[in-house]
Design brief:
Blueprint (H helix, E strand, L loop, with lengths): L15 H8 L4 E2 L1 E7 L2 E7 L2 E6 L2 E8 L4 H8 L1 E6 L5 H7 L16 E3 L5 E3 L4 E13 L2 E13 L4 E6 L2 E6 H11 L10
Length: about 190
Amino acid sequence: MNVVPRNIMTDTLVSSADFRGAMRHLTGGVSVITAGRGKDITGMTVTSVTSLSVDPPTLLVSVNRDASSFPLIRRYGAFGVNILNADQLDIAERFAGKGGLKGVDRFAGAQWVTSVSGVPLLVGALSAVDCEVEEIVERHSHAIVIGRVRDIRSSTRTAALAYWHGQYVAVDQDEDAAKLADVSVPARSLRGV
């Protein structure tokens, strides 16, 4: 099937505030993207990570082109995706800019290891994924960075950190599964659907 490009209107019909408000309803897993090598490192908190392909293992992340991490991702051709557990709220806030820390100073207070590509990966993250940049697609204020997975380090933790309605929330597999079972629709009522 061929998709024919169509002309896209340049006048925005939806305000940025309305769009941002609508996107607050979308719950996102919280990750810290790390970039750079040695002392030339930085990172940022994002909810825009998603898997792209299993074969080969590939993911993508949306990065603001004005973010300090973007030039380092481009320069070194690699980045780390550190999927935060529920106990790592302080790390999420630090890498989101709370406290005004920048660059290498954001890494203080947590344990990091150097990955295959040289980017820092967070010890204790639910998963820490080392990616080599495969392609960067720049659109509007952001770039879609496609990364080929080179290494994965996972922990045994099960509670994830998520972002919903402008705040961080913990998602615990065991606790939340029990809560959902208590309020879920009985399976027999779904048969008629």
